[in-house]
Amino acid sequence: MQENQDTIFTDIPELKWVENRAEGSPREIKSYVLRSSYLRTFQLEAIRKYYHTYGLPFQDKKISFREVFGNDKPVIIEIGFGMGTSTERIARERSEYNYLGIEVFLSGFSKLMDSVGKQGLENVRLMRFDAVQVLNSMIEDGSVAGFHVFFPDPWPKKRQQKRRLIQVPLARLMAQKLQKGGYIYCVTDWEEYAYQMLEVFSQVEELVNPYAGFAPPRKWRPTTKFEQKGLAQDNPINEVWVEKTGR
To answer: Which of 11, 60, 72, 153 is catalytic?
Structure first.
């Protein structure tokens, strides 16, 4: 039997929010809109069992990564981790980093929570909130080692493209949060969006593209089932990697 999260997570209010925007505030950049969701039993149990260890609630003040993770490892923020398969594997195999994953899709959020909790991955924390608000309110400037944005929604129709995540305001915000030498790593199977990403990042003065175009694949990024389907249909996978200059 399925349960509505609105009736069970009374002690975890951030899992119930469907909109994260102050009344009357603009919608200039927004990473997503939260949607209601129904969860399977194991997903409910994962939230109940692991949220207070691995979940990070939103707060309108800057956080200390050292306090959050209990160490001084560099921090990678992933925006929109989907079902979390890549996040889990990268965090497990590249344990010299800490990972903060932000995702609104409750089913994916709870599945990754289940995997992280069962494996005891101490270098992962998860949030279900608007990533733009998180960056603005919680993340110190110059504190992030890298950003991962893998297969964001391409919003392919012309009238929808203003909803795309990778736009100049967010690119500037991510650059502001990056350490010198930090990176932004984006991957998409929508070629036109990939070219837009290159153009967007070229407009941010602090960011440089060491490849002068698309980047070669990183061996440590696993191929997901979603990506495999795209490859089977001969969809090109384009990777974009930019770095914050030391100027």
So the answer is: 153
